[in-house]
Design a protein that fits this description.
This protein has 18 helices and 22 strands. The protein has about 550 residues and is an alpha/beta fold. It has 3 domains: about 190 residues, Rossmann fold; about 150 residues, Cytidine Deaminase, domain 2, CATH 3.40.140; about 170 residues, AICAR transformylase, duplication domain (Cytidine Deaminase, domain 2). The strands form 6 sheets. It has a 6-stranded mixed beta sheet, sandwiched between helices. Helix 8 runs antiparallel to helix 10 and helix 13 runs parallel beside helix 14.
Length: about 550
């Protein structure tokens, strides 16, 4: 008669699994808690202590560590000498082991966990049995995951045994189970023992990718376990081709922006991990209109994300545009039907319920890896942060809040310009901050010129030639570079706001901003020359807020 040893922490489905084994003529062996459950279910089960002839001792720490258990698991059935030794010592083979381990991670995650509690949740006999059975996979079936109960029973029922392919697969899963278990224990114990930290990474393959950033680079997409909101790993793809490496990078960046906005409908368009348009509106269609009008050119071939359900009106505006991806928490049926009529458009339904907790962000470097917590914190703005004589209006405060959330997600050096809940200009990734400001302000001015007919009847004026700005070094740089003279640029006189992801090392960004109609600025502050920028704002009647929070994004 075949024998199965069952001793599990996760008891999901184990009674039904054991009942199926009994119906197929298997003898059951078990220990303490699992044995009690099986007996209560009316199943015949033999105690491991009856097999070993030795009681469980040391509060259950020692119960399966015995030659009659491990000899039964490790003996090679194809070696006569092994089988002779089993017979001489009265040891019967064990052909299937069903074991999973104490939830150590859950135990040490409790805020009041003690060292004693943690240590008592470190298994010894369980991992030993798993490893013994897994080593002898050619003869023994090892099951550590309840998801494998059904396929194992199906093979036993139809074939009378599990196949070598199944046993090898289950062996690999078993070693993964013990490796993850030991990794959790080591990660928890090393700092308490004063040992140098080791980083253990654990990810599951989500999907292989056709290639990486470029066709000659190999790539795969891995995911963490468990539910994570705003994650592509758990998104439901409703239409279109497989996601590429670049798609995933860009889409993830878009989702990071979307999670900043919850109070009103919001839309963002993104290219190369930088926003090219964004807007807040009373409706999804209004939000999208603002995002699109902010940069109609750059959105071509881009990615769009919404924080609300996409309705038919919005889908009708999206359809004529060439886009790679449209993402939202849901889609109205008629909107989904319309978007899915474009066979190559990737349409993704993304879980946006709940908050993203602190996550590790990793970047590989030659010979190592950089690790940091994600930049999840975005401070709220208030008039208490104003450092200038001029104070922002209520409307400007709303726009400062909007641009402050947006600039956080633009590559440094980053400057964004906005108005009326709309992103008008983005200066990303320049080697100096005034260069980023110049790009953002020119774009904002051009956007307003193009949309001047919708400026609510405001008086239009020519700003004339913008001169006298200077290029500063990167943040913290000590010297100015040569003056920059932007070309003549006509723009409607508009009340703009500007946000910078890091401080102004000189007053040149303020001077340049004023010439493009900026009336309020938000920046972290912290430069040794902050007073220069404050003084210049006071001269020009610009309100400026210092947040004390930097958002570099390399």
């Amino acid at each position: 008669m075949n024998r199965a040893l069952i001793s599990v922490s996760d008891k999901t489905g184990v009674v039904d699994f054991a009942r199926e084994l009994v119906s197929l003529g298997w003898e059951l062996l078990s220990t303490s808690g699992t044995m009690k459950m099986l007996k209560e279910a009316g199943l015949p089960v033999t105690s491991v202590s009856d097999v070993t002839g030795f009681p469980e001792i040391c509060d259950g720490r020692v119960k399966t560590l015995h030659p009659k258990i491990h000899g039964a698991l490790l003996a090679r059935r194809d070696l006569p000498d092994h089988m002779r030794q089993l017979e001489e010592n009265g040891i019967g083979t064990i052909d299937l082991v069903c074991v999973n381990l104490y939830p150590f991670r859950e135990t040490v995650a409790k805020p009041d966990v003690t060292m004693e509690d943690a240590i008592e949740h470190i298994e010894i006999g369980g991992p030993s049995m798993v490893r013994s059975a897994a080593k002898n996979w050619e003869s023994v079936t090892i099951v550590v995951n309840p998801e494998d109960y059904a396929p194992v029973i199906e093979e036993l029922r139809t074939l009378g045994h599990t196949t070598p392919e199944t046993r090898l697969c289950l062996s690999a899963k078993a070693y993964t189970h013990t490796a993850e278990y030991d990794m959790a224990i080591a990660s928890w114990m090393r700092p308490k023992a004063g040992l140098p930290e080791k980083l253990f990474l654990e990810y599951d393959l989500c999907q292989p990718l056709r290639y990486g950033e470029n066709p000659h680079q190999e790539a795969k997409f891995y995911k963490t376990s468990g539910r994570v909101p705003y994650s592509l790993a758990t998104a439901e793809q409703l239409n279109g081709k497989e996601l590429s490496y670049n798609n995933i990078q860009d889409a993830n960046a878009a989702l990071n922006i979307v999670r900043e906005f919850k109070d009103k409908p919001f839309a963002v368009g993104l290219k190369h991990m930088n926003p090219c348009g964004a807007g807040v509106g009373e409706t999804v269609s209004e939000a999208w209109t603002k995002a699109y009008e902010g940069d109609k050119t750059s959105i071509f071939g881009g990615i769009v994300a919404f924080n609300r359900e996409v309705d038919l009106e919005t889908a009708q505006m999206l359809k004529p545009i060439f886009l790679e991806i449209v993402m939202a928490p849901s889609f109205a049926p008629e909107a989904l039907e319309l978007l899915c009529s474009k066979k190559n458009l990737r349409v993704l339904k993304v879980d946006m319920e709940g908050e993203v907790t602190s996550q590790m962000a990793c970047v590989s470097v030659n010979g190592g890896i950089l690790v940091q917590n994600q930049d999840l914190e975005t401070c709220s703005l208030s008039l208490d942060q104003c450092v200038t004589k001029a104070k922002p209006t209520e409307e400007q405060m709303r726009d400062l809040e909007f641009t402050w959330k947006m600039v956080k997600h633009v590559k440094s050096n980053a400057i964004v310009v906005g108005r009326d809940g709309m992103l008008l200009g983005v200066g990303a990734g320049q080697m100096n901050r005034v260069g980023s400001a110049e790009i953002a302000l020119k774009q904002a001015s051009a956007t307003l010129v193009a949309g001047s007919a919708s400026l609510d009847g405001e008086t239009h004026a020519t700003l004339g030639t913008v001169r006298g700005g200077t290029m500063s070094g990167a943040n913290g740089g000590a010297e100015r570079s040569e003056a920059v003279e932007p070309p003549e640029l006509a723009a409607p006189a508009a009340t703009l706001v500007l946000a910078s992801d890091a401080f102004f090392p000189f007053d040149d960004c303020v001077t340049l901003s004023a010439k493009y109609g900026v009336k309020a600025i938000v920046q972290p502050g912290g430069s040794i020359r902050d007073e220069d920028s404050i003084k210049k704002c006071d001269e020009l009647g610009i309100a400026m807020l210092f947040t004390g929070q930097r958002h570099f994004k390399h």
